[in-house]
Fold this sequence. Notes:
- It is a single-pass membrane protein; Single-pass type I membrane protein.
- One of its GO terms (biological process) is vesicle organization.
- This protein has one domain (2-154): GOLD domain (Jelly Rolls), CATH 2.60.120.
- It has helices spanning 2-15, 127-192, and strands spanning 16-26, 31-38, 43-52, 58-63, 69-76, 78-84, 89-96, 105-114.
- It contains 2 helices and 8 strands.
- By secondary structure, it is an alpha+beta fold.
- The protein is elongated, with a radius of gyration of 29 Å.
- The strands form 2 sheets. The chain has a 4-stranded antiparallel β-sheet with strand order 1-8-3-6.
Amino acid sequence: MLHKLTLLAVAVLVTLQSVAAFNVVVPAGERRCFFENLEKGDTFHVSFQVGEGGHLDIDFFMTNPNEILVEDAKKTASDTFNFEAKISGKHEYCFSNAFSTVTEKTVGFNALVFKPYREDATNKTDPLEQEIRELAAGIQEIKNEQEYTLARERTHRNTAESTNSRVVWWSLFQSAILFLVCVFQITYLKRFFEVKRVV
């Protein structure tokens, strides 16, 4: 049992080179870019969710070291990309809010790098080790889905709270208008029925 747990821990550490979860604020008319050094054959996974701002949409794009566009998404609230590096070098991915002139956006995203498994020619591949690697990748996907769900829940909660606040203020405004109309009508009717005396 201890041997299996050790293999699982080693597989998780070997399979995932880097895991990062971030939140970034992208001001109106600007973009925020990040870099990842990938080797040929590495798989880069990025998932994002716009949590606050405007219509909850953002542009996303990714370029390889030759500045060739490899991934692109326009005005999307959330998305997931899996990219296998064809060449080694610095890959750039950006969140752009250039289309917005007023509203800044808050984006939460996860970035993961998966190193390909290279079999050692001197040793036979252990089927248990292969299963553990697949299990580790599945666990990471579940974690990504949970973070995505939490971001969606936070977005919906903010929307509900904002709507509730607007309803309360609108109700108070209507009550104030109704009170003023009642005061005006009572005053007007009172003057209408007043009898003017001639001295």
